Amino acid sequence: MVKRVGADKAIVPPGTARADGKAVPSADPASSAFKQILESAYKQTEIIFSAHARSRLENRKIKLGLEDLKKITRAMDKAEAKGARSPLLLYKNIALVASIPNRTIITAVDGAGEKEQIYTGIDSAVIFQ
Predict the structure, then answer these.
(1) Which helix (H) or strand (E) element contains residue 45?
(2) Mean pLDDT in order along the chain per 10 residues (129 residues)
(3) Distance between CA atoms of residues 37 and 78, nearest Å
């Protein structure tokens, strides 16, 4: 017969009292708070350009600098605060369609040579300089 180590002890689920009367900790609240802060900071600073948007920017020789990206980020933040999910961002001579939940620029169009544009699948527009 094999004697099992700890076989006489019951498994105690998190949040219930142990034999000594102390509760079993369920999760470290500090670590979950840190995780929320980290996710929030990542969300505020990160903008992803889809492959399609990158291709459009490269083909049209549109260059966006760090200051441009900061302005686009602020515009996305403002759109999100108003409840937008798929805004059209009109910046200088560039139109960007964004996905707020994914923090992604889906497509980019410049005004050169374009007389008429129709944008579908958007729920708001943000115009900024």
Answers:
(1) helix 29-45
(2) 61 62 61 70 74 93 91 96 97 95 94 77 96
(3) 20
